[in-house]
Amino acid sequence: MVQATEREAPTGSGAALSPAVAAPADAESPQLKHDLTASVGDGAAFGLMVGIGETYVPAFVLAVGLGEVFAGLITTVPLLIGSLLQLVSPWAVQRLRSHRRWVVVCAGLQGLCFVPLLVAAIAGEISAIGAMALAAVYWGAGQATGPAWNTWQGTIVPRSLRANFYARRSRLQQIATMVGFLSGGFALQWGRSAGDPIPVFAWMFVTAGLCRGLSTACLWSQSEPIPIPAGTKWLGVKETWRRFSSGSTGSLLLLAVTMQAGVYVAGPYFNPYILKVLQWDYRDYALLLGSSFVAKFLCLPLWGRFAHRAGAWALLWVGAIGIIPLAAGWNVSSNFWWLLALQLLAGAAWGAYELAVILLFFETIPERERTSVLTLYNVANALAIVTGSAIGAGILKAGHVSPESYHWVYAVSTAMRFAAIGLLWRLPRVSVPAAETSLFPSAVRPNAMSLDEIVLPDLPDQVSTGQKASVEP
Predict the structure, then answer these.
(1) Average pLDDT, whole number, for the chain?
(2) Cα 64 to Cα 124: distance, rounded to the nearest angstrom
(3) May I ask the CATH architecture of the domain 2-13+22-467?
(4) Which end of the chain is more exposed for a tag (fewer CB within 10 A), N or C?
(5) In this structure, are residues 461 and 367 in contact, taking their beta carbons and an 8 Å threshold?
């Protein structure tokens, strides 16, 4: 799923700043070099936290006996809390008179969430309310940093450096995420072989918390040349809703939200299906996640070239059609090699879909309006995710969480994805030039459903003309 963030942040409810203007900076200056190094350190530490910590929260709640339906809902319900907290960010930035301070506070709070998870892992138990509350705080703190971080970083990194810098930073973060969840999977498999994997979760949560602590330190050490950039453009709630619900922008956002609802009927329940119904080893579970994750980002350069030739609209068709049968494929067979092949296809399809959505965001949403429109999109998207997961939970409970009820969940998800395709006809057929567009993985899910943050400043209107790069490795 694409989480839309922008490097121009609102300074009030429904307000969007004009583009953050990077302070003049010498590319050889010690301060800029320090800031870029610290930003890379933040990205790598954050990616490792996601891979070894956040990714395994559903597996942890399953291990301590909170149930398969709950393990699915804990990956979706907190997203709604997080999206709503984004609306608080502008007020908090104003109160603190600094984007950097707000980002550091939220990042530190997110890291502290691993402390009670560590305690729960040592005790071998946690209540459902406690787990859901921790997940809500974790996601809320993480998503609340988005607009402020983007605006702040836009004042540090000169336009002439953004394309190459964020491409390298994104790749390093992707590698760190992959190393994290593969390490976690093999560690848990060792713990299971030793008789009890739950103590291993404690070490994983310690590692994740320390990584977020290092990430927070890297954030704190960076400079803030312009605490609150000047030049605001106010968009009221009604005007923002009009942008969201009408025209080519409305068609694109409606498609994205509708597709998410269908996808998340099944999405949250791949974890419990793999670990409880199929009873796979943690090692195989990690390899399955890793295959789709790697396939997605290896295919991005190919999809970039395709978009350059055929346009983002054609690429969106390819990705959307590829997404449709993915859930139904889990009803065909539970053979590891079949599901591995399905995961590789899922990675390729989601890579195409997400890149196309990003490029169409650039084409259909004016730069000055992206923050307010896309913040509302994130809220609507979270509502769609929760709605979809609730439908899936209802089907599972109606079927007494039997293997057959999972098959019904996957079938309904497939049908809803197919129904969403009809909205593609409402989109304008535009041709958007491919650009080096960075995606920061903020979560990893089976079936290639990672939650990715868009780096909108890497789009063509946010980098210097001479620095626009095609999507090449």
Answers:
(1) 80
(2) 6
(3) Up-down Bundle (1.20)
(4) C
(5) yes
